[in-house]
């Protein structure tokens, strides 16, 4: 078939009277280039997104799409202020689901009855023959390698005398074998319903852990509409008839894939590509709208007999039912372009009788793992929960923001290190600005050129961000703009030695702008909001990467840790510490918070409503300053009086007690007061871990040096005259100094060998002399 090109795309026209649309351009898969975005109805956007096929745990390939689409959706709603109706489907009936559910059911039944190790071993050997046959016919190198790994795993399990180990390690192999023998006997539809229900629940747990917003509408109901023909109880879409109809074009997204049998068969599913199914079609390019169920498959009644819906028709019907005859945006993974999305387009456009069911088709890029292809079918994947065990949701989201939504994202150590670097830069920036605002040390000492550069960065910040986001939602560029502005802010702070002068207002303005942007992206962790649900807009101000109100528990813990610090220091500084509790009480009173120090734990009254609605950075700043100043006073006294235990207690207060409560305290040189403020808890935990590792390495290095020194000293105990006498396997005669003269065979030692032995003798003589000197 000759190469086919994409048909002409007709851009939608703005709604009359709506003239305030942003100059947003999106990369449209229907044209393979950026196109101005114009919704069908003013600022209202109908958006449909392909959801998961729920038959297993969600993996990072799913995250590639769903985090990206969540970021894009948030930008549309919270930045560009579009009215978005976001609809997503859950595919809960599909060949993969049927096969996985059936195999799981059969394996559970088999395992519950298995009692004889010999019988199970015999069955596993039969299953291995089937796997070996499948491997021998495989031509894909990646799948060949996978089959080899599976076979090696099963062969190792066959050597086990433990029945449970044999069953567990042979599960995949046995499942496939059991399904080939008994799959047609599974007739209870509940078997095929329980599995997707389970993994749908797990999917939403993962999505909320990633702070992905719930869809406005989740659809599962299936109806049958089509442009098709019936054959042997199945219904197929006639691709040739559709292509020949005026105004229609099949395979709009990937025209060259029309007729690609490998892709077409993958789209139909493993249970639907047998010779009997192919004979039912007028053309092998036709795809199923309704599949007549075979024995061992779920079935529902229909005008054509018992059967089940085809995968492609589900999305078309559900999207059309919820969004109407035209979608402004349809999103999905790039691997679904053909045949799934092309089939969706064909079905819907045949039904509605027009050629623009989707205006903008947006496809997220692939995800690789350290440069290697990730594939569920190849068992080469990382689940979302495995990724979250290593990285915070915020860090993962930053990694996605640092890549274009349409390009390949490589999930690797380098990618996550870059994300961690940005996370730390943002956290440090917010921390430093908060300290500058708190201290308000007005001065004009900063370098004028540095101040001018910073003022220019702030003045152009909003325009640059808007330009980046209007260019295909370029979040990567927006973070680079933030980074450049933060560098300018850091230069300002460095040049003024912490005194920001009149530029403190500009610093605060930039911090507010960066906070709002990160909140749009879903990277601000807002306390009291369940992940996955849209929170109310943050109040004016900047809060960094976390928004936390003050709580009675936090205040009590801060006071308790400070009280314990006082206790640790009191034997040496009792008089100096007597007034410190009153200072803390007075500091809290400035924020309208009442406390009292009892004999046990500090008691905190219920917080005023206004305190609970303000970020803790604001309400607890006086308390943190009082704690820092109290510690500074203690530290000064301890340094003057050389109280090592008290200085150690000061370090513990800074590095452990406060850090575990989310407070970062940094001592500064000169007469500058210690910097203190709230900081992301996970980053503080990382700092503690890094500090502990450094201390452990330092201790290990010290111990190694001590051991090496001890070894040298031990070697020095032996006189040089004795060092070779024990080597009788090498030498047979020695002179009066203990130097070897003949080897073990009685031959004289050569001159060159004697020269080397003499050097060793001299070195030992020196070591022994040093040892004698040090042990007098």
UniProtKB/TrEMBL annotation:
UniProt cross-references to SUPFAM superfamilies, sorted A to Z: Nucleotidylyl transferase
Statement: the UniProt record of this protein carries the keyword Ubl conjugation: no
Enzyme Commission number(s) from the entry: 6.1.1.16
GO terms of biological process kind: cysteinyl-tRNA aminoacylation
Annotated keywords: Aminoacyl-tRNA synthetase, ATP-binding, Ligase, Metal-binding, Nucleotide-binding, Protein biosynthesis, Zinc
Gene Ontology CC terms: cytoplasm
Residue ranges with Basic and acidic residues bias: 727-750
Sequence intervals crossing the membrane: none
Top-rank EC class of the record's enzyme: ligase
InterPro entries cross-referenced by the UniProt entry: Cys-tRNA-ligase, Cys-tRNA/MSH_ligase, Rossmann-like_a/b/a_fold, tRNA-synt_1_cat_dom
Residues covered by the tRNA synthetases class I catalytic domain: 38-419
Span list, region Disordered: 707-751
Cofactor dependency: Zn(2+)
Family annotation (PANTHER family): CYSTEINE--TRNA LIGASE, CYTOPLASMIC, CYSTEINYL-TRNA SYNTHETASE
The name this protein goes by in its record: cysteine--tRNA ligase
Organism, scientific name: Macrostomum lignano
Origin organism lineage: Eukaryota, Metazoa, Spiralia, Lophotrochozoa, Platyhelminthes
